[in-house]
Q: What sequence folds into this?
């Protein structure tokens, strides 16, 4: 008998979904993974080095959920465009984190080259900054203010491309961990 705490932790774990063509696409929760597997829209995918399945017990059955599944149907690709530059999208791109100090509270939008100095409202000139950093930087460039950006700002990339990149980076780290 699994207590409900263990069960809910397990259900909050996630599964990586691959396209029919074996491209990592996104991360979904166990509930969605079960639905895809039960309805035959996905099958387990064994990447060869981590076959650890997550077991979910219902009163009558035990589901073994693999860590990776592959869609057996073609998914419909939704049209994706680079989002327009606005506060919500900037915060999302920067993961709600000040790009100068890492603070996650009292966030504002900073123009790297201030608009008063000709800076544009474009993806590579806007970053999330906390109030303190924004005030400290004031009407100056980061160099003039002696401040350093953690990451050079750029336009968001397609979410599937972003996920694929992150997936293989993490997977490489895991493999290296196994070899060492
Ligand atoms: Zn800050």
A:
């Amino acid at each position: 008998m699994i207590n409900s705490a263990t069960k809910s932790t397990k259900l909050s774990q996630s599964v990586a979904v691959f396209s029919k063509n074996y491209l990592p696409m996104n991360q979904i929760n166990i509930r969605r993974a079960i639905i895809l597997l039960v309805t035959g829209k996905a099958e387990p995918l064994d990447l060869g080095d981590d076959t650890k399945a997550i077991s979910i017990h219902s009163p009558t059955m035990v589901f073994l959920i693999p860590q990776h599944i592959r869609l057996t149907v073609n998914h419909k690709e939704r049209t994706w465009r680079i989002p327009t530059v606005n506060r919500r999208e900037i915060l999302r791109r920067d993961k709600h984190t000040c790009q100068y100090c890492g603070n996650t509270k009292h966030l504002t939008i900073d123009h790297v080259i201030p608009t008063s100095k000709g800076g544009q409202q474009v993806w590579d000139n806007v970053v999330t900054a906390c109030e303190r950093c924004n005030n400290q930087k004031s009407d100056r460039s980061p160099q003039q203010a002696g401040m350093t950006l953690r990451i050079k700002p750029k336009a968001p990339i397609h979410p599937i491309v972003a996920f694929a990149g992150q997936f293989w980076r993490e997977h490489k780290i895991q493999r290296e961990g196994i070899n060492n």
